[in-house]
Amino acid sequence: MDLRLEPSYESESAALSASRIPWATGIFGLAIAITGLLEALHRPEVLWTWSKFYTLELAFLAMPFAFRRWISGRAFETLVMSSWVIVVWLIYYYSVVCPLSVTSVASAAVCVMTGAALLATWSMTSQCILSAAATVGYCALVIWRGDSGIDVTASVLAVASGAAISVQGTWYLDLHRRAIFREAIRSDDEASITRCLEEFARELNRALGDEGVAERVASLARESMNTDWVLVMQPSEEEDVMRIVAGDGKLPTSIDNLKALDVPVDELPFLENDSNTAVKLAADWETGASQLLRRMWGKHVMVAPLHHRGKRIGVLLAGADGVTSRSHRLIRGIAQHAAIAIANAELLAELRQASSMKSEFLATMSHELRTPLHVIMGYTEMLTDLLGGEVDAEVTQILQRLAQNETSLTDLIEATLDAHRLEAGRNTVKLRKFNGNALFDQMRSDTRWLPRTPGVEVQWTIPDAEVEICSDPTKLKVIAKNLIGNALKFTKRGHVHVEIGIDSEPQRLRITVTDTGPGIADDEIPQIFEMFRQATPTASEASLAGVGLGLFIVREFVTQLNGNVQVDNHPDGGARFRVEVPLDLAESSASGGRMVA
Length: 597
Hints:
Number of helices: 15
Strand order of the largest sheet: 3-2-1-6-5-4
């Protein structure tokens, strides 16, 4: 057993022995009483003598418990063992006063020794003294009485065998208990390490999105391992150079001064095997790094390289006065979690940088694209006005196609900007009251020039009664335009029907767009509202299909307006989209809906 566990095992054994001895003593006394009563039934003349001896034996058996208030542990065990030895000798003496056969006395001695080994569960020392005293006493009894013959020889051998068996049994029982104790300690230790690593990982994950993950690793690692200090080192941009990036604990100087140090790898001999190890700082180390580490109030340094995907991304150093196997296992687990956290933090920083660059690119490119596009649209309108009606049908068709593609490109740029603003959280709701019928007419006008297959018409059903709406009119127009544009892309013949309705209870604006296209496959309906996802077009539809931003913007805008959007296939063919939003968004938000800006 590990020498560090020996005191704990001894303490545990003493506590167990102290709890078992009263029961063993009681059983011992009861066995003597039963044996004496059985003898008195056969030999009534010895009853008085037996009573006096039994009273004396009970007094010796009870004596240790009278002093238990002042003594405990092995001292109490020694006192109990001494009382048992005296009682065994009293039994021997009783066999002289009231003659008993040597085999009966031998049986009693063997029962006492084996019973003590099984019931008292005390130390090997106590069992050896009891067995030796019982055996020597029995041999002295036989010599004193002058008995001889085969029975005497057999009884002496029986007592000696009983003594040897009881000592051997105590030894085996102690080995078994030690094995159980070691396994229990190991299981508790592993459970403790597992809980510690789980808590370390949980706390580290909470800091993943923050800056300074390496500092958090150092702080949590020192708390988890209870070491004097912890340093995190990572490779510098220069080859074969390590740099301290974070530290915590009793450091000889400020962490900023430590971070300014560039430590060559050849000054860190403990990195040579690149494996988890504990290194005692040797006096003959004369490098700057070793001198620095020796000043950190720790006789030992534990080293755990931080690996991620087969590459060493850093080193974790922990200094303490002593190193245990538990410390080794703990720092290995901490190093694994720390490596993942540091690698994820670096990846997150790269993603944030990439996202920032993407946002700048989208904003810049959208602006740069819109400027020449507006120029092209202006010249197209001028050309159309100059030519008037003096051109043939082919030129007119070319100008119409040019205008349609200009509109498509403009819509694509606006959709890209809307998606970018949604991702950045800058596309807020601009709430105001307005006339709904004027908005519906504007929707019809804005969608008049949307690209479509020749012959496909857009039919409108608009309420005649005046409607007052409190919402974001710009977002409502974008919702309607995207739904109608999406329907026109997949409608080769027939029409697209737009129905605008008002529900009185609850007061909601309803926009339903139904087309006569091929419809949407059931397995594709859940994905069409995702960014850059759309229903799979046929070969003839592919030329009109967009990039998959329109319906994503519809879903996001509807959500911002506290509404909902549904899609299904119309029984007569084609797809049907239905959007419902509150007529009064301010009242809806005040009653528990989404807040607006």
